């Protein structure tokens, strides 16, 4: 059981004891109290003996509303009720009413035993296989993935890992926009580059893709089909075949790059399949009471639900907007999953409200559709924005990024900021093997723990050791991991994991610097602490797709 939970139970028991004594003027359920436990930070003037407290609480301020008394007096009454506690060995009250505690060393030591017994399941399996679909990346198969997709991939894949750890039945999905204008543009662009390989010059269309990835794709098609498409004007049948082949080649390359980036999917869905399934017609039928025709186009009435204008579903030439098949796709997902999470690029932020409205109109709970929008990434090298692509013209691709930086460094660094904030990725800093590299610090702490364990006595369940304050701070951080997973799952803030790992590594390194562990009087107990650090660092890194080396 977590240290916080054990201490909170002791405080609740103390409050209940005061209730039994008639201390409070109003009745309340002490088990429903919400109060804080935090690191103790007693002012020096209030702690002349420099006592090393472990925790502080604001509980006296929380229960003040039930009695006309000063928080300091309430705190002293709670202190009196704690005098026989086996968990809390010493209590001090500081103005204006904070309680400060020293916690029994045995509770900290026992917690390391529990963490080590749980191993890779620590902090997980608190959800009973509830289904959730997490869709991310979903880049158009019209070119290589760029650096912005890398951030979305790191966020989405980490969410998948953490939700699975929590006990969810997760479906990781990639949606391929393999129909519509962008695929026509891909085919036309590739065909021009393909013809050039046979010495035929044809002007590039006004709307086209010009990157080196298009030339690469044309060469792949030549390798596969020879001169099969070497016609200045393709027949409709050959044009459709070229579209399919070009799309498949690009998608295969995207998936290979994602695999190298340690990202995989359970399901790859296709817009073409959605269009062919009849799902769009079904959606239009269900939405008919909320649509209208104007100037030959079909509109969805979204303004009545807070949108700034109604949205076109079918243009006046009869073609679908991007929104319509996407609505059908989301309806299909909702039919199979009670909860959906989408990780979109910031350029799709305008679609969030209209998609939620559409789901509501189709009878789904729009609150069960969570959409994260990933802000832009800018690459920095030598203190300046870095333009570096060898493969895709002026864009910066994921492949380029992996050529210039390790997957560990990219993934960890991409997860150090909230998704709704713009992000500068400093290649030099990410690759550094010095103290300013976040991923290096964490991985080095893990390898240090591994090295120590190879030299120390085997960890044992000896619980009579005396712990230093720094040792207790490390164990307190280990204890927080359980709550961290719950917080990340509820908020989708995967950056909290990198913050946690960096802080744990910092605490462990500080503890290591101050404590001679080899031949220590309580070496086997401290080995249990080191093993718990190793296990939690390894697990935390695994949950964000970063390796945990045993040697560095």
Automatic annotation (TrEMBL):
Q: Which residues form the Arginyl tRNA synthetase N-terminal domain?
A: 5-103
User: Which SMART domains did the record assign?
Assistant: Arg_tRNA_synt_N (SM01016), DALR_1 (SM00836)
Can you list the GO cellular component terms from the UniProt entry? cytoplasm
DALR anticodon binding domain span:
442-552
Indicate the enzyme's highest-level EC class. ligase
Q: How does it assemble?
A: Monomer.
* UniProt name for this protein: Arginine--tRNA ligase
Source organism: Mycoplasmopsis gallinacea
Query: Which gene is transcribed and translated to give this protein?
Result: argS
């Amino acid at each position: 059981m977590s240290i916080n939970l054990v201490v909170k139970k002791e405080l609740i028991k103390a409050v209940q004891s005061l209730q039994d004594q008639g201390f409070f003027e109003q009745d309340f359920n002490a088990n429903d109290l919400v109060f804080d436990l935090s690191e103790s930070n007693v002012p020096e003037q209030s702690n002349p003996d420099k006592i090393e407290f472990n925790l502080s609480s604001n509980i006296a301020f929380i229960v003040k509303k039930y009695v006309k008394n000063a928080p300091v007096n309430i705190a002293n009454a709670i202190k009196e009720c704690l005098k026989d506690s086996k968990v809390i060995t010493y209590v001090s009250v500081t103005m204006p009413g904070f309680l400060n505690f020293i916690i029994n060393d045995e509770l900290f030591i026992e917690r390391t035993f529990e963490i080590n017994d749980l191993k890779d399941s620590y902090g997980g399996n608190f959800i009973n296989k509830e289904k959730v679909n997490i869709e991310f990346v979903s880049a158009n198969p019209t070119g290589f993935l760029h650096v912005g997709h890398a951030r979305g991939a790191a966020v989405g894949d980490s969410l998948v890992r953490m939700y699975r750890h929590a006990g969810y039945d997760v479906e990781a999905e990639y949606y391929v926009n393999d129909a519509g204008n962008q695929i026509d543009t891909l085919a036309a662009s590739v065909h021009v580059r393909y013809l050039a390989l046979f010495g035929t010059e044809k002007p590039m269309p006004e709307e086209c893709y010009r990157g080196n990835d298009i030339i690469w794709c044309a060469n792949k098609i030549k390798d596969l089909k020879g001169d099969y498409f070497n016609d200045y004007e393709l027949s409709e049948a050959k044009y459709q075949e070229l579209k399919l082949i070009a799309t498949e080649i690009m998608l295969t390359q995207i998936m290979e790059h994602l695999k190298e980036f340690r990202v995989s999917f359970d399901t790859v869905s296709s817009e073409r399949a959605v269009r062919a399934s009849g799902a769009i017609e079904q959606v239009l039928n269900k939405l008919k009471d909320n649509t209208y025709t104007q100037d030959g186009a079909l509109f969805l009435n979204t303004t009545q639900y807070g949108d700034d204008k109604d949205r076109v579903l079918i243009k006046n030439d009869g073609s679908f907007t991007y929104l319509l098949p996407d609505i059908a796709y989301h309806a299909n997902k909702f039919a199979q999953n009670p909860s959906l999470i989408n990780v979109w690029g910031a350029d799709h932020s305008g679609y969030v409200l209209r998609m939620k409205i559409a789901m509501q109109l189709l009878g789904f709970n729009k609150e069960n559709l969570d959409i994260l929008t990933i802000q832009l990434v800018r690459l920095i090298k030598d203190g300046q924005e870095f333009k570096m692509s060898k493969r895709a013209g002026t864009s910066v691709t994921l492949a380029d990024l992996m050529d210039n930086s390790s997957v560990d460094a990219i993934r960890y660094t991409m997860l150090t900021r909230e998704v709704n904030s713009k992000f500068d990725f400093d290649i030099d800093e990410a690759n550094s093997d010095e103290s300013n590299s976040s991923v290096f610090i964490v991985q080095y702490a893990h390898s240090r723990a591994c090295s120590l364990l190879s030299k120390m006595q085997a960890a044992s369940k000896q619980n009579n050791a005396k712990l230093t304050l720094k040792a207790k701070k490390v164990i307190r951080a280990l204890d927080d991991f359980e709550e961290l997973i719950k917080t990340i799952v509820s908020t989708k803030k995967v950056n909290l994991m990198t913050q946690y790992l960096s802080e744990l590594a910092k605490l462990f390194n500080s503890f290591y610097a101050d404590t001679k562990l080899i031949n220590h009087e309580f070496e086997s107990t401290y080995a249990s602490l080191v093993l718990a650090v190793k296990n939690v660092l390894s697990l935390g890194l695994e949950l964000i797709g970063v390796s945990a080396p045993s040697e560095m």
